[in-house]
Design brief:
single chain; alpha+beta; binds tetrahydrodeoxyuridine; 131 residues
């Protein structure tokens, strides 16, 4: 695991639009070519319309033309564990296999814990189910 992914997630977190929760999240994802795509959470005055940092990062990856997620970093507030929410685990699953690493960092840039996607979303339903 190299530092470039968390540096991109921390830079994205600086732009988080989270005036309601004040929980600022950054995420970065590596694609199958090694390129990095980052995103932040974007909240909305109509609360349910907001979305997660992982969502923004996935959108950036897809719009670049990339097809696969090969590594994920997430950073929230403070030094406590911030894992992707359930919905984001499924969104990541669309483009990633069970063995993809999901690294969770504190806002200082310290690694708190790493998981595989399979650990976070066991026995998942994915694109293969529809083939
Ligand atoms: N949030 C994320 O962006 N990613 C996560 O993995 C957890 C939660 C956001 C959604 C909302 O803007 C704020 O954090 C509080 O839930």
């Amino acid at each position: 695991m190299s530092r470039d992914l968390i540096e991109a997630a921390l830079a994205a977190r600086k732009h988080a639009h989270a005036p309601y929760s004040k929980f600022y999240v950054g995420s970065a994802m590596r694609d199958e070519t090694g390129r990095i795509h980052a995103g932040c959470n974007v909240e909305n005055a109509a609360y349910p319309q907001g979305w997660c940092a992982e969502c923004s990062a996935i959108a950036a990856l897809v719009v670049s033309g990339a097809k696969r997620i090969t590594e994920v970093a997430v950073v929230g507030n403070g030094e406590t564990l911030c894992t992707p929410c359930g919905g984001c685990r499924q969104k990541i699953r669309e483009f990633a296999s069970d063995d993809v690493a999901v690294h969770c960092y504190g806002e200082s840039g310290k690694l708190i814990r790493s998981f595989t996607l399979g650990e976070l979303l066991p026995a998942s339903f994915g694109p293969e189910n529809l083939k």
